[in-house]
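Run log, item B.
One chain of 241 residues. Sequence copied directly from the ordering sheet:
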Amino acid sequence: MIATLAQLSYVYSMSKSKVEEQLSVHHGGAHFHDLMVDSFARRFDDSFWKLWQEDVASQHGDKPVYVDLGCGPGLMLNAWRERYSGAVLHGADLQSYMLESAKKNAVLADAVVHEGDLHQLRLPLADASVDAVLLSMVLHEMLEPIGVLREARRLLKPAGRLVILDWIRAPLSQYLQGDDEDVFSDATSFEKRMDRFTHFMEHNKYCSDDLSWILQQLGFEVRRLAPRNDGQHIRLVAVPA
């Protein structure tokens, strides 16, 4: 039985609502926007730009096409524009409180921002037309990673680069180090404990071998895999195989 357009639209709207609900729970609300803005410089520090220059920018000409999937407030679009004046820039996100800022930053960066669920995204860009795709702190938030990685594979040129920054699996004791509140203290609320353990499960979804294996199944070859922050985060660069 072939699904009608109305049925497909209904399925998509249900999926979109589920994803938005899941993201809202994970982010804790619109204040996550401000957290992303405040932490941008730390996440994309000099060591990140050194990696980008060595593994990405050195491989393209003066007018690269860059795509930020899960662009959040769109600050990367501005950062790319400052460094690569001839670049063609695209971002994509779903959350309304991210898109409002992303669209403003897109105007400043002369970029295009697309609204859509990354699980089912198909950007209006040709196959093999993109020099680099960035997925920063995105995969651990997704219900499944295959759809967005398949779209990244479709977009990338044969010599294109996929750059992933994300959480990877670490021991609970390490994850809870540095918290403002001790989850074992009688004074710590149930809500705080629930939040920390929920985020632990979300942030520890994949290990580096998991990501490498998933990428291999989808036609990528991992070129760089660099753990950071005592193994809690990873920077990964892959190319179409």
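Observations after the first pass:
- The first strand starts at residue 65 and ends at 69.
- Residues 5-169+205-240 form a domain with the Rossmann fold fold (CATH 3.40.50.150).
Flagged for discussion on Thursday.
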